[in-house]
Amino acid sequence: MTTSTMKTPATSAYWAGLRDGAPFILVAAPFAMVFGVIATDAGLTLAQVMGFSVLVIAGASQFAALQMMVENASIAFVLLAALAVNLRMAMYSASLVPYLGAAPLWQRACVAYLNFDQPYLLSISRYEALPAMSVPERFAYFVGAATPITPLWFLMTYVGVVAGKSISDAWALDFIMPIMFLALVAPMVKSLAHAAAAAVSVSVGVLLVGLPSGTGLLIAAGTAMLTGALVEVWLEKRAQ
């Protein structure tokens, strides 16, 4: 019996996730390195920076919390900033329940830890496209999508800490984050409701960019979800 014929559906799903997640190392790696550089410049030790990345694995909230720390904000405000920026993870978790809610507790805990943007968006697209996937296959795909990114996030954070002083500002690595989100979100805009939600999110986010602690982002996300839901309802009524 050949190796290929011995593969289980879950194993095949894992390798599919690994393949789909691999391209995102091109943006996740420099993004993690930038965090290591900035955190070191802010005065954090190697242990503190690495603990930050290993425990959180969420670049946007890490940067938000770090900025508040640089401004000597209280612990409460640092936590509030990180939670505000990362509230989208609660939305991610809620949308994963129909697909992974029946998984064993340890698998759900694993998904909760690895539930950041890339594996979530890749997985939810896969689940919607292939509704017949079993729960073990869905879990395997999710973990596979996270596999190329997670260890590299830790490694490149370390590289940023160690080699930060020699990285020139001329590299302009801060452009990585918006490029990464565009690459993730753009393929998911497949309907009028998606397009309307995206347009409202961008418009409101730009208008409220000056609000503190990610508040503008939260308002933009809320209005985008409401817009998408209203457009979906309108389309359903029109079809009837």
UniProtKB/TrEMBL annotation:
<keyword id="KW-0813">Transport</keyword>
<dbReference type="Pfam" id="PF03591">
    <property type="entry name" value="AzlC"/>
</dbReference>
<keyword id="KW-1003">Cell membrane</keyword>
<feature type="transmembrane region" description="Helical">
    <location>
        <begin position="139"/>
        <end position="161"/>
    </location>
</feature>
<dbReference type="InterPro" id="IPR011606">
    <property type="entry name" value="Brnchd-chn_aa_trnsp_permease"/>
</dbReference>
<keyword id="KW-1133">Transmembrane helix</keyword>
<keyword id="KW-0472">Membrane</keyword>
<dbReference type="GO" id="GO:0005886">
    <property type="term" value="C:plasma membrane"/>
</dbReference>
<protein>
    <submittedName>
        <fullName>Predicted branched-chain amino acid permease (Azaleucine resistance)</fullName>
    </submittedName>
</protein>
<feature type="transmembrane region" description="Helical">
    <location>
        <begin position="21"/>
        <end position="40"/>
    </location>
</feature>
<feature type="transmembrane region" description="Helical">
    <location>
        <begin position="217"/>
        <end position="235"/>
    </location>
</feature>
<dbReference type="GO" id="GO:1903785">
    <property type="term" value="P:L-valine transmembrane transport"/>
</dbReference>
<feature type="transmembrane region" description="Helical">
    <location>
        <begin position="46"/>
        <end position="66"/>
    </location>
</feature>
<keyword id="KW-0812">Transmembrane</keyword>
<comment type="similarity">
    <text>Belongs to the AzlC family.</text>
</comment>
<feature type="transmembrane region" description="Helical">
    <location>
        <begin position="73"/>
        <end position="91"/>
    </location>
</feature>
